[in-house]
UniProtKB/TrEMBL annotation:
GO terms for molecular function: 1-aminocyclopropane-1-carboxylate oxidase activity; L-ascorbic acid binding; metal ion binding. Its cofactor is Fe cation. This is 1-aminocyclopropane-1-carboxylate oxidase. The keyword Metal-binding applies. It comes from the Eukaryota. PROSITE patterns: FE2OG_OXY (PS51471). Signal peptide: none annotated. It catalyses: 1-aminocyclopropane-1-carboxylate + L-ascorbate + O2 = ethene + L-dehydroascorbate + hydrogen cyanide + CO2 + 2 H2O. Belongs to the iron/ascorbate-dependent oxidoreductase family. It comes from Dioscorea zingiberensis.
Length: 318
């Protein structure tokens, strides 16, 4: 079983319907799929790989050696506890890029390259959301408007969706059985676009009760849907558990961009999708509560590595 690989360029040609169906299948059956020919220039992707790897080398590698996962693992090994697994840390170096936070200034081209990359990825996310609108039978732009907290009488979005980019490295781990690269979770937000390492694997998704690889595919963009798409789609598109294994060899790079609702946006199942359900009572047709995304994130911050259902319950009861 392999995660579906979809040629996104075919959306603009004769094979549009087939491609829409492939994406619908990716969303409904997998929650993860890989896009090739996605329109992001390969030359830009090459520069992104280069500046992120250099940034890790010059600014972060030394720091990682003193980080808490390294210290905690060393302690366990020193005590000879090779059968124990660390359950509350990840073997990962991370920093987040948003429009208004501080970015690394080393190497010199880092900022301009990543700015260009983020602009491209944001456009791609919006295209994918429109495909989801179409596949779900929603009005064009529905998901984006929902993530913006709606529009005013002139059609101007009330808020900005959140768009963040998480640059991660998973350095080689001397005891990969004793710690996760990143513990299993579902993503909180909307649409996630991941540019993962060409060679070093480790990302797995839970499919029909089994963990399977998201196979490294050079220059592909891996797409997955988070908890908010599950809610908006009233459960048609489920957010899927995934994790990253620590590996003994190779430093895995991954760059995940998150297109999420504004914290001020109210998220609820799309009424037309609720109306399409066959259950007798409205209560049974509506599978999820209505809530403010900011409130969801407060709950998520405490429960990221736990099941999502109690999060929906908690935020619905607020
Ligand atoms: O690094 C990866 O491949 C996955 C990262 C991830 O799942 C996350 O940041 O939520
Ligand atoms: Fe994730």
């Amino acid at each position: 079983m392999v995660v579906p690989v979809i040629d996104f360029s075919k959306l603009d040609g004769e094979e549009r319907d087939k491609t829409l169906t492939q994406i619908a299948n990716g969303c409904e059956e997998w929650g993860f799929f890989q896009l090739v020919n996605h329109g992001i220039p390969l030359e830009l992707l090459e520069r992104v790989k280069k500046v992120c790897s250099e940034c890790f080398k010059v600014e972060r590698e030394e720091m990682f050696k003193d980080s808490s996962p390294v210290q905690l693992l060393n302690k366990l090994v020193d005590r000879g506890e090779h059968g124990t697994k660390l359950e509350d840390v990840d073997w990962e170096d991370v920093f987040i890029l948003q429009d208004d936070n501080q970015w690394p200034s080393n190497p010199p081209h880092f900022k301009e390259t990543m700015k260009e990359y983020r602009a491209e990825l944001k456009k791609l996310a919006e295209k994918i959301m429109e495909v989801m609108d179409e596949n779900l039978g929603l009005e064009k732009g529905y998901i984006k408007r929902a993530f913006s907290g709606g529009v005013d009488e002139d059609g101007v979005e009330l808020h900005h969706p959140f768009f963040g980019t998480k640059v991660s490295h998973y350095p080689p781990c001397p005891n990969p059985n004793m710690v996760n690269g990143l513990r299993a979770h579902t993503d909180a937000g909307g649409v996630i676009l991941l540019f993962q390492d060409d060679k070093v694997g480790g990302l797995e998704i839970l499919k029909d009760g089994r963990w399977i690889d998201v196979q490294p595919l050079p220059n592909a963009i891996v797409i997955n849907t988070g908890d908010q798409i599950e809610v908006l789609s009233n459960g048609r598109y489920k957010s899927v558990w995934h994790r990253v294994l620590a590996k003994p060899d190779g430093n895995r790079r991954s760059i995940a961009s998150f297109y999420n609702p504004s914290f001020n946006a109210t998220i609820a199942p799309a009424p037309t999708l609720v109306a399409g359900e066959t259950a007798e009572t409205e209560e049974a047709r509506i599978a999820y509560p209505k809530f403010l995304f900011g409130d969801y994130m407060t709950v998520y911050a405490q429960q990221k590595f736990l099941a999502k259902e109690p999060r929906f319950q908690a935020v619905g009861a607020r």
